[in-house]
Amino acid sequence: MSYGYTTRLGSLNKQADGSLLGVKLGRVCIKHEVPVIDIASQLGVSRQTVYNWFMGTHEPKEELTALIKEIITEYKK
């Protein structure tokens, strides 16, 4: 894995509930090797926050939902 995506993070993301928006974002970012810092900057949050979403331990605030869905859609094209 690259861009700081450790094998452990990839494993935790795969084990997490795939219906969670943060986990979906993580799967897209890991697959397309999108740097966490880029996602954090776009959303105005810390890298740790993004990692927590990827692992399914936290979910994004409601006000970020639309933007996260846009990011997911863009990378799925």
Structure overview:
By secondary structure, the chain is mainly alpha-helical. It contains five helices and no strands. The longest helix has 12 residues, at 21-32. The radius of gyration is 11 Å and the shape is globular.
Strand content: under 5%
Rounded to the nearest angstrom, the radius of gyration is: 11 Å
Bulk shape: globular
How do the helices and strands follow one another from N- to C-terminus? Answer: HHHHH
| Category from helices, strands and their pairing | mainly alpha
Main sheet characteristics: none
What's the number of extended β-strand segments?
A: 0
Spans of at least 5 consecutive residues with low confidence: none
Oligomer: single chain
Count of helical regions: 5
Helix proportion = 55-70%
Q: In whole angstroms, how far apart are the ends?
A: 21 Å
Global mean pLDDT: 92
Offer a concise description of the structure.
With 77 residues, the protein is an all-alpha fold.
Q: Which features does this protein show?
A:
5 helices; mainly alpha
